[in-house]
Amino acid sequence: MKNIARIDFKLWAVGLLLWVGAVWAAEREDLIRRGEKVFLLGGCGNCHTAESGPLAAGGEPLITPFGTFYPPNLTPDPETGIGKWSEEEFIQALQEGISPEGQPYYPAFPFTSYTKMSVRDIRALRAYLKALPAVKRRAPEHELRFPFNLRPGLWVWRWLFFRPERFKPDPFRSETWNRGAYLVEAIGHCGECHTPRNFLGALDWDRAYGGAVLGEIKAPNITPDPDYGIGEWSREDLSYFLKTGIKPDGDTASGEMAKVIRGGTARLDEADLAAIIEYLTSLRPIASDPTQKP
Q1: Are residues 154 and 197 in the same domain?
Q2: How many folded domains does the chain comprise?
Q3: At what angle do helices 235-244 and 255-263 cross, to 10 degrees?
Q4: One digit per residue, pLDDT tens: the chain, 294 residues?
Q5: Residues 236 and 134 in one domain
Q6: Are 236 and 101 in contact (CB under 8 A)?
Q7: Fewer CB within 10 A of the end CB, N or C, for the chain?
């Protein structure tokens, strides 16, 4: 009887371990799927993937008035990617803009928007990136002009312009609006391209989403102004554009926005698209657009 009892206990223990393992694996898969969605929403592959190169293994040069930035490798390679980063270091990089070595990042990395992301989404993103194939590819050093090549100056920049914060829902707005605000302001970091910057590269939130020119990137006004923005676009127009890249006049998105649509918004579900559109159409209209200057 004792032997039978021992066998029953062992079988029960093995069954329990298998069940726990299956639950853990399912939760892990759910986390990775959520992380993939965050990756797409954030357009991470647009900056961190080179033309015809491995996913997230380092992107094309980003040419700006301050110099040229080289997006780094986000794959789990331990030497040239994020393979050795702890979860705490990854969260710190996105929410605080500080590297694992304790150095400040340049705001070309949009931590000024990612600071609003939830820890839950950041952990999911890390899980997805850690599941990618590791690629050994070291990004070149940034090539910046003086004085922007002096990294210690970034501490002053942060003191002047950066305030770490988390997204806080507006209790007087709908759940859909708040979801859209989070997607646009935090994960999607739309303002990083569509909001003009001052001479030190800080975003001018008095003209939020009013269009901007940064080096070779021209991001138009996306406020609901009828003359300079998207005020004449219907919600159906906006939804179709974010899915296909085709504008109401038949023109198509190009450059960075084409990448955003192809690798991100075209793959969103209807609920997230509706949330983004509800938020964008609620913005304060800006009656100007620097991309339309002759």
Answers
A1: no
A2: 2
A3: 90
A4: 555 655 555 555 555 555 455 554 566 788 998 999 899 888 898 889 988 889 999 989 988 888 999 999 999 999 999 999 999 999 999 999 999 999 999 999 999 999 999 999 999 999 999 999 999 999 999 999 988 888 999 999 999 999 999 999 999 999 999 999 999 999 999 999 999 999 888 999 999 999 998 877 889 999 999 999 999 999 999 999 999 999 998 888 888 888 888 888 888 889 999 999 999 999 999 998 898 865
A5: no
A6: no
A7: C
Q: Is residue 294 part of a domain?
A: no
Cβ contacts of 52-59, under 8 Å, gap ≥ 24? 53/137, 54/133, 54/135, 54/137, 55/132, 56/129, 56/132, 57/81, 57/135, 57/137, 58/137, 58/138, 58/139
128 neighbors 39 (Cβ within 8 angstroms): yes
Domain endpoint, select from 137, 166, 195: 166
The one-letter code for the residue type at 90 is F
Residues 6+ apart with CB under 8 A from 209: 190, 191, 194, 195, 221, 222, 223, 280, 283, 286
Q: Is 243 part of a structural domain of the chain?
A: yes
CA dihedral 242, 44, 180, 125 (to 10 degrees): 140
162 and 181 fall within a common domain: no
The phi, psi pair for 67, rounded to 5°, reads 135, -165
- 51 belongs to a structural domain: yes
| Amino acid at position 134, single letter | A
Residue 242 lies in a domain: yes
**Can you spell out the DSSP letters for 112-144?**
HHHTTS-HHHHHHHHHHHHTSPP---PPPPPEE
